[in-house]
Amino acid sequence: MFTLLKPGGMSALLRYLISLLLCWVLLFLLQQACFLFFDPGWTRALSGTAIRTSFLHALPMDIAAACYLTLPVALLAAPLLWTERRWPRKAIKIFLAVCIVLSVFINVVDMALFRAWGTKINHKALSYLVYPEEAIGATSGAHPGQLMVIFVAQCALAWFLFSRIDHRRSIVGSSVWIRIIAITLFPALLLIGMRGGPQDDPIDRSWSYHTVHPVLNLGALNGVWNVIVLLAEPPEIEANPYTYLPKDEAEARFVDLHEDGTSERTYILNTERPNVMVVLLESWTADVVGVLGGDRGVTPGFDRLAKDGLLFTNFYSTGFRTEQGLCALLSGFPSQPKTTIIRQYGKFDRLPSIVNVLDSAGYHSTYFYAGDIVFANTRSYLETIGFDVIHDENSFPISRRTDWGAYDEELFDFHLRSTRNEKQPFFHTIMTSSSHEPFDIPVDEGFPGRSDAQLYRNSVHYTDRTLATFMDSCRHQDWYANTLIIIVADHGHYLPHNRGNHTAERHRIPLLITGGALKPELRGTQNTTFGSHVDFAASLLGQLGPSAHRFEWSNDLFTADAPHFGFWTFDDGFGIARADQTIVFDNLSKLVMQRRDSTANASDDTELLRNGQALEQVLLDRYITLSQSQ
To answer: Can you spell out the DSSP letters for 124-175?
Structure first.
């Protein structure tokens, strides 16, 4: 016993490891503070008690992460219990330096991701690393200079903190048995710390989820621990994590939510075989569309176009990335939490395709984009679902471009040139890009200031102005009178009002149906039916005639008594909105994060929640088994 108290040996190693653990925990607390207060708007409405509680919830995972980073040091220091050597001390110093830099880098990336995506690093984010240039652009809501200052400052403070530890102190012990106990006991204790304690179930992400405020939950989620676990987890979902209901009940609810309806369908066409043109607007949210109650003055062109079309006022995006919107729109398959089907060969090629259905009906299909279409496996998906022609940045000379591609006006001009002698009927999809982060379109649209919100409004206004000009030009084309035009966003955005990634407001987007093939009596009208991207297939095919039976997730927006709702997913949860209520549920905390009508009947709310859980459960069942289907 007295040997433990002597200088050097086991007691010296113990003090050294405890000092490292404390330094790591202090660094993690600093990183949590940087995360929470990076954007004052994230915590402005939160109480001091709530923020302090977040720090307390972070401690178990901070300690676990500290144990992860201290265990290698304990193993490297083991030889020093026998004799003094240079290489273990040098290895420890290098290891600590690398871990400090990586820890700070993870924290900085987490801040940028939360601003852009409402999440920390996850498998979906890691999958974008194969496209570094586009990945940087996708998360550039946080200014690089600001992040660099935080990175350098944290590294400097961390190195100063760790340098206060005496890394040169001898730990050579005198007793062989004490040395053996030390090299056995300390790693064992650290292993227990890594799992969060001796309890049956090891620590997991749910430990940090304690509130309905995502910024506090994710603030309590240690970034280093999160990345370590991500790297240890299989990148692909192998078992359904959302089995809330018995399988039969979940499937029965799914069927009930996708009944065809018995009422007569409302027909909106004045011709039987119209051309169909879809204009996908990058990152447009209802929050900036004046006619949808958003900020006034940002979309005057769209507001004018709405006077000549049929506007849906309760339409929702299924996810928050373009590739999610594409798969939902063209294949009728909702976005998935944590992963994205467009990256999975053997899955996305088993999806139904509205392009193939229309091809069988005699339609010629073309996809128009002015950027790198390889990003996020988009070209492979578009070729698989049957587009006859795919245009990208290599299809026409580009005079001006943003990080994501040619200015929208050049893309629209290219479309007009390409379709002068287009064979009819055609199916066209035009994907804009100028309103994508980092909103670097260098055109002054009358929104002064360099805040993210103003830059976003400026870029949307630019696309709006060029869209209105494009639509005016379309009216003079020979094909216009026989063309149905659908203008819809690919997904919403957290700007300009800093919406949480889970919220209904972030996912509410514009959907406008116009063009010469629309019945005159529907021009200037609004439709309050609830729906989402996946409903496009059944709604369009119901007008054109081909069967939509393969699009099992799709409801016809023009059949009055069919079930109508918007459904979306986020990193680890879902939202479901219908005429009477909206429920947003977080799977980790098991909390309802948002409820539109707090006075609604509790049993009705429970029923809607169960329907949402059934949808998410069936979605993951379908996703997992899709590659097994024939």
So the answer is: HHHHGGGSHHHHHHHTTTS-HHHHHHHHHHHHHHHHHHHHTS-TT-----S-
